[in-house]
Amino acid sequence: MNEHLTEVKDYPRSLKELANEVGFLRYKETAEFLEYLKENIKEQSIADFKKDRKKLSQRLEECSKHLENARKEMEEAWNICEPYMK
């Protein structure tokens, strides 16, 4: 993809509604979503580094690290809740 979009293709609702839908997934699936997002941002960081966009690459790398931390926390939340899920 060469350009960044302003909306999610084939998703008719707002980004806020998308965030709410992801937020209402089971924590296990939310953690999985965060993993995919982290991987995507990391790939963008690498691509920008190769294009000599060092500052942007660094910011995206930091973002991917924060997403990894969020994923780990969500997995911990799942581990707490899982025994009580039906």
What's the gist of this structure?
This protein has 86 residues and is an all-alpha fold.
Description:
This protein is mainly α and 86 residues long. It has one domain (15-84). Helix content is 71%, strand content 0%. It is flat. The model has no long low-confidence stretch (mean pLDDT 95).
Draw up the topology in text.
Elements: H1 15-23, H2 27-50, H3 54-81
| Number of DSSP-assigned strands | 0
In terms of DSSP E residues, the strand content is under 5%
Mean pLDDT: 95
Roughly how many Å apart are the termini? 40 Å
How many domain modules? 1
Could you state the order of secondary-structure elements as H and E? Answer: HHH
Number of helices: 3
Overall, the morphology is flat
Helix fraction?
over 70%
Which radius of gyration do the C-alpha atoms yield?
15 Å
Uncertain stretches: none
Largest sheet: none
